[in-house]
Amino acid sequence: MYSQSVHAETSLQALFAFIKANPLGVLTTAIPSSANPLIQSTHIPWVLDAYTDDPTAPVKGRLRGHMARQNPQSKSMIEACTESGTNQLQQEVMILFTGADHHYVTPKFYTETKPTSGKVVPTWNYAAAQIYGKATVYYDSSASETSDFLSQQLHDLSQHCETCIMGFTGTDGKSGPWEVSDAPERYIDLMKKAIIGIEVTIERIDGKVKMSQEMSAGDRQGVVHGFKSLESDVGGRIAALVEECGMKKDSQKSSR
């Protein structure tokens, strides 16, 4: 991931919080296959397991996901594991997470630089994290470890999404979360046979939060005002992020 120092997010704690808040990640693999493309990607919701804040740790955490067995990317992973005689992929995989709020930034928002020199161009504000690591694939539907992995994965993912994303906590007058046990057991068993499980060790992680920090204070204020003037939900959230990131940049600058 290319990132200027002003945009780089180096805090592991912040990056893991970002992943929990934006669990839909794009799994990308590069696996030689006679039947499928070399490079493949799939959107997958992930569960973040126990992790460490130690940047020197060889494994900083683990991500668990699942995908359709009939997905060509699944078939390539199963083929590679079958040929190697292990359920671990030899190739490194990458998972990309992107923040929900992102937006085009017009040069018209730069109220300090545009009127004086005109030396401004459009850009895009966004936040993202990239994970690199090795994947273990649970694809043998007859193996107890596959069944156990998928049962735990489905339970943990649904609980996280139901409570943290949907807000169905069962408290303060809110309804309770949907649970896997709400569906017939036989139905869930059939669904489990149609998917494979994936566990990825987090060996490297890069993060980027690009919210106009590279601009002068005057231009940042122009961006904040410009997004607020859109009078949209996403515009309001982008404006708040630009303000927050700008304050963080100014604080770091003044502490040097």
TrEMBL record:
Originating species: Penicillium oxalicum (strain 114-2 / CGMCC 5302)
Any Pfam family the entry gives: FMN_bind_2
Family annotation (InterPro entries): Split_barrel_FMN-bd, TR_PAI2-type
Superkingdom as given in the UniProt entry: Eukaryota
Gene3D superfamilies: Electron Transport, Fmn-binding Protein, Chain A
Entry protein name: Transcriptional regulator
Stretch forming the signal peptide: none
